[in-house]
Design a protein that fits this description.
Shape: flat
Structural class: alpha+beta
Radius of gyration: 39 Å
Largest sheet: 6 strands, antiparallel
Number of helices: 20
Distance between the termini: 28 Å
Low-confidence stretches: none
Strand content: 15-25%
Strand order of the largest sheet: 2-1-4-5-6-7
Amino acid sequence: MLRRLSIRDFVIVDGLELEFQEGFGALTGETGAGKSILIDALSLALGERADGTAVRMGRDKAEVVAEFDVAPDSPLAQWLAANDFEGADGICLMRRVVDAGGRSRAYINGTPTTLAQLKAAADLLADIHGQHAHQSLLRADAQRQLLDAHAGLEGLTKEVAESWRAWQRLREARERAEQDAAAGNRERETLEWQVRELENLGFESSQWQDDNQEHSRLTHAASLMEAADSAVEILDAGEVAATMLVDQVLARLRDLAEVDRALQEPLELIEGARIQLSEAAHTLSRYRQRLELDPGRLAELEQRIQAVTGLARKHRVSPDELSELLERLSVRLEELRLTADPAALAEHEAVARQAFMVLAERLSQGRKAAAERLSRQVTDAMQELAMAGGRFEIALPAVAEGAGYGLENVEFRVAANGGQPPRPLAKVASGGELSRIGLAIQVIASQAGEVPTLIFDEVDVGIGGGVAEIVGRLLKQLGSHRQVLCVTHLPQVAAQAHWQWSIAKETRADQTLSRVTPLDGEGRVEEIARMLGGVTITGTTRQHARELLGL
């Protein structure tokens, strides 16, 4: 759950250090006081895009740090470990910095990260439902995504999409093969000749290095032999060899070392040098014995090197790239051989289609079960939300031949009143009904998830009265096992919260800044009374506020 939120120079916030509690928390205040700015700041820390307008006027940068609890065996803990973002035990710090130019930097537990990684972690930390979220329910793709997310089918939908694309690539390849067989034949013949030429060369990168070294050695064999003979002669085999001279020095110093022990150290150093000289002479002798002049082998290597470099120049690559070139040309040749036979390609296409159908049918089964369950739950919720007799259902009309998202569309349908047939949500729901249905869907879908923190930003727009009280109870019920934060203007919703903050604007040094005040018992009474009564707060209004709070 969200524990702390630190905000610096963000929009109209100069500096805030907020500590959050468990359960259902309400964020209230006058319109325009900056309640949604807190949600925007948290959204920034969780990976939303930002520009320079997020930076408070006159400042260089804005910074937001969100601290979350992390359960040891949670999906987030596993993700952090797998991506090398582990931090202090039980804590995940999400940090975002945006400068006035619009450039941003992101960090997880102090380690720089990409925006994609920040969002991946955020998906395991919090769900944010915006105040216009119910409007997105009018879109077919949003309805499909919500159902798939509610059913935990996101991984399967990705597999279906990949399988669909693989099938379509083969279908398009088969169609191209049928339309342009002649051009494919010409390219295939050219590639066959090129691949055969490269295969006959038998090029191997490691052998190429060895051949070059051997060629260099044979080319300079005479010079190497002469240098080795000369070195051995000077070191150990000549009449005035270095080892002989050193032996004379040693014989003289050994006698004198008995007289003065101070000569012992240089004596030992010279003895070591004598051993090294002797070993060097023996090593050179063995090296010289291996050297030989081999004009035949040299010619063979020169011919080989010329063949390799010539073929590399022909294909405009370096010799070291010839193996990669052969692999690339072989892959393309195999593709052309496949496309040269439309019947064989059709067989591969059929296999890909069958693979898609297997995955898509699994997805369909999952969607059907989830659709029935969610339809029943939302219908039950509608009875409490002043839509008695109403009915919600999720239809799954088939898509001929399927699509990248499966074998069916997802369509939310509703009958707002009893006795009416369900019709598409976009055609029958009024603004107030859409708000209530959307909120019911969001709350129910959130109950099925595992994300520990849920944030609702004015999602109760368009409802009021007894319905608002029911919505508050739904959020309180959700807050009994998850952390729920709700920005609301409705006193009936705020009164159900386990805790409440008041957010207001104040002017300091000619600047308008946002202020957050945690409310105690009497503070909540005053805030709920303000939400009920407006400018003038009477004793009756306060009493009503106490009744709502259950005091």
